[in-house]
Amino acid sequence: MSADPGLMATLFPEADFSLIAVVLGMPLLGAAVNGIWGKRLGKEAVRLMALTAVGVSFLAAVVTFLDLGSVGVDAHERRTLCLGHSYCSQVQRGRAL
């Protein structure tokens, strides 16, 4: 299941990296708000801010991942990605070094 490419292209153009900025920026924003105004906001508000920031970041990361299916990858790049994934899998198992 992939996101609608027309909608994704409209919301996040190919040369615009705003979705990645959301993935990286939301937890930073949440940490800044909680760090600066945390005592004034109270425990429940701090918890809500942290969960919201991480949740929005997670959803943006999922959308980014689903959008990778619409990126055109040629045969050489696909082979390189597969070899890299295979190597990393082997290293995790302790077989390739």
- Put simply, the count of helices is 4
End-to-end span in angstroms?
A: 36 Å
Report the uncertain regions.
none
Our estimate of the beta-strand percent is under 5%
According to DSSP, the number of beta strands is 0
Share of helix, binned: over 70%
Structural category is mainly alpha
Mean pLDDT: 76
Question: What general outline do the C-alpha atoms trace?
Answer: elongated
SSE string, helix = H, strand = E? HHHH
CA gyration radius, whole angstroms = 19 Å
Please outline the major beta sheet: none
Structure description:
The chain is mainly α and 97 residues long. The protein is elongated and about 50 Å long. The mean pLDDT is 76. It is built from 4 helices and no strands. Helices cover 77% and strands 0% of the residues. The longest helix is centred in the middle third of the chain and has 25 residues, at 43-67. It has a domain at 5-71.
In short:
By secondary structure, this protein is an all-alpha fold. Helix content is 77%, strand content 0%.
List the helices and strands and how they pair.
Layout: H1 5-11, H2 18-41, H3 43-67, H4 75-93
Helix pairs in contact: 2-3
Provide the descriptors you would attach to this structure in a database record.
single chain, 97 residues, 77% helix
